[in-house]
Amino acid sequence: MGFFSGIEGGLEKYIEGFFRDKFKGRVQPLDIAKRLTREMRDRKRVSVNLVYAPNEYEVFLSPDDWESISYLAGSLSAELQDYLRQKAEEKDFTLVAPPRVGFFRDENLKPGQIKVNGKFGGQSGVTADQEDPEDPEFEDTLNYRPVRDTAPVPVINPGPRYVLEVREGPLAGKSFRLDGYPVIIGRRDSCDIVLPDGSVSRRHARLEPHKEGWVITDLGSSNGTFVNGVRIRSTSLSPGDTVKLGATLCAFKVD
């Protein structure tokens, strides 16, 4: 599940070696993971039978620290999302949708400082065939929702809206909207896009946004990932490209 899956065990040693050399700022991935865990715990809501945890997280960093991670932000987001999913299972928390982690620059922060804002997001962009969950019956959440100072959410100019449309396979006709966060595609239920196709690996491929569009990376799948009929390890996508994972054929489109 990525290097964050064993954070209590070997992550610190891992960071002190290879990963620490890659991050030139004062903030390290382990620091971010700890703050995300704390935010998940502090923002949880208790209903009649379940404990709900936030699924969307905004990580604010100083300009220097943001620059130090910007070129790896997509991969780091994916690892942190896997880590949060595992922590929610470990704590028996319920997530209303797969976790999302985004990084933002805050001019008011000094190097080494981190601000994390967790919130409850909807299902959009996860799977097109999932119905919205029933509204949980919270116990007067206004009485215990934490009230804290948080950095303002930066304004993001709307850009093209990308869609992955299934043309062949068990979910033919379904579309998945890509909302600007890294997305894991596979057969496992915990993936962001779940393809119930026996020829698709449990964690088959990752889609992540880049400056000029989206990039797809094969995650060591058994049957490979093909773009326009060519097997790839990692490549950028253009509108109209076809993506084949196992027996499932998709089209990458602009909505």
Account of the protein in words:
This protein has four helices and 16 strands. The chain is α+β, with helices and mostly antiparallel strands. The protein is globular, with a radius of gyration of 19 Å.
What is the 3D form? globular
Please count the beta strands (DSSP E, at least 2 residues each).
16
Low-pLDDT ranges: 1-21, 123-157
Structural class: alpha+beta
**Arrangement of strands in the largest sheet:** 7-6-16-15-12-13
Question: What's the order of the H and E elements?
Answer: HHEEEHHEEEEEEEEEEEEE
Radius of gyration: 19 Å
Would you summarize the structure shown here?
A hairpin with a 2-residue loop joins strand 15 and strand 16 (248-254).
Write the layout of secondary structure elements.
Elements: H1 7-22, H2 29-42, E1 45-46, E2 51-52, E3 56-61, H3 63-69, H4 73-91, E4 100-105, E5 114-119, E6 162-168, E7 175-178, E8 183-186, E9 193-194, E10 205-210, E11 213-218, E12 225-227, E13 230-232, E14 234-237, E15 242-245, E16 248-254
Parallel strand pairs: 3-4, 8-9
Antiparallel strand pairs: 1-2, 3-5, 6-7, 6-16, 8-10, 10-11, 11-14, 12-13, 12-15, 15-16
Helix pairs in contact: 2-4
